[in-house]
Amino acid sequence: MFQALKRLYHKLGSPKYFYEMTGKMLPWLIAATVLLLVPGLIYGLAFAPPERYQGDSYRIIYIHVPAASIAMGGYIMMAVAGVVVLVWRMKMAEMVARCLAPIGASFTFICLVTGSIWGKPTWGTWWVWDARLTSMLVLLFLYIGVMALNSAINNAQSAARATAVLSIVGAVNLPIIKYSVNWWNTLHQPASIKMTSSAIDPEMLFTLLSCIGGFYCLFAVLLINSTRCEVLQREQRSNWVKKTVGAV
Amino acid sequence: MEFDSFQAFMQMGKHGAFVWSAYGITLVVILGNLIAIRRRKKNVIETIQRKIKREQAGL
Q1: Mean predicted confidence (pLDDT) in A203-218
Q2: How many domains does chain B have?
Q3: How many structural domains comprise chain A?
Q4: What secondary structure does DSSP assign to A73-102, as a single string?
Q5: What's the domain range around A214?
Q6: What is the ipTM of this complex?
């Protein structure tokens, strides 16, 4: 088992293998995105029951929660890739980490904007300096900081090492986001979905889970496509890239 | 279906502007990402192809 994982790790470290494998995976991922996201969103917008107190404004949940989950999941991924960059100097991890930043920033932006729009009819305000909202804004700034640092350093490898340090240090923010709703009792509500019990109607829950799954597939599609560009660019001197691109 | 008519669906019980603007902005951001990546792919491939041609001409 461990040996097989180790082999997979080494294989995935090869840009050529990554490019070939993701090329085969992409059509399936795109199909999964459509199959999960389209019915999920249609059901969430038109068929799921309205919320008892909020009426129909709650339907924003079907994009807000998936975006928030990806904003944090993407950051965890970037920090883990950062560790791999610093410890094992893996080139593939450098490329993935670099491509993660703008995509993660996009989903954090979606989470903040949809949350703000949802807050107006629900809380009566677009924005408060609530712990959850503030720590999420810090996450957006961390992503933007990583992007800025990446474009400020010309050498790809030095840029990757510098941003790896920044993203690992910034990971301190993640538990703060997660537990902010329990530590401080302000406006943002605590989590409704837990592994053991959920304070949410099953019809809403399955719709939301479908949307979360669909958003994760979409995130994977974006990340893989972006990383494939990065692979082609960085490996342009190698023969397999010349062959691949020449054949297109 | 929770709504009686298309109009009711658009109005979302007085919250239409909020719900639809949230979905609209999300769609714009995701499409923006897709377009940016597609453009980058085209740029990268064209640059490499030009380079290959130059190398072949130099030979």
Answers
A1: 94
A2: 1
A3: 1
A4: HHHHHHHHHHHHHHHH--HHHHHHHHHHHH
A5: 37-44+59-242
A6: 0.92
Range 20-59 of B in CB contact (< 8 A) with A: 21-23, 25-26, 29-30, 32-34, 36-37, 40-41, 44-45, 47-49, 51-52
Question: Is A113 contained in some domain?
Answer: yes
For residue A137, what pLDDT is reported?
96
Q: Is residue A146 part of a domain?
A: yes
Q: What is the 3-state secondary structure (H, E, C) of chain B?
A: CCCCCHHHHHHCCCCHHHHHHHHHHHHHHHHHHHHHHHHHHHHHHHHHHHHHHHHHHHC
**Among B51, B33, B35, B38, which residue's Cα sits nearest to residue A228?**
B38
C-alpha A202, offset from chain centre:
25
**In this predicted structure, what is the pLDDT of residue A195?**
67
Residue A11's pLDDT is: 81
CA Rg, chain A, in Å? 20
In a domain, B21, yes or no: yes
* Terminal-residue alpha carbon distance, chain B: 68
Q: Report CB contact under 8 Å: A55, B15.
A: yes
Average pLDDT over residues A240-248: 82
Report the residue from A55, A67, A245 with minimal CB separation from B48.
Answer: A245
> Averaging pLDDT over each range in A2-6, A31-35, A131-135, which range is the top one?
A31-35
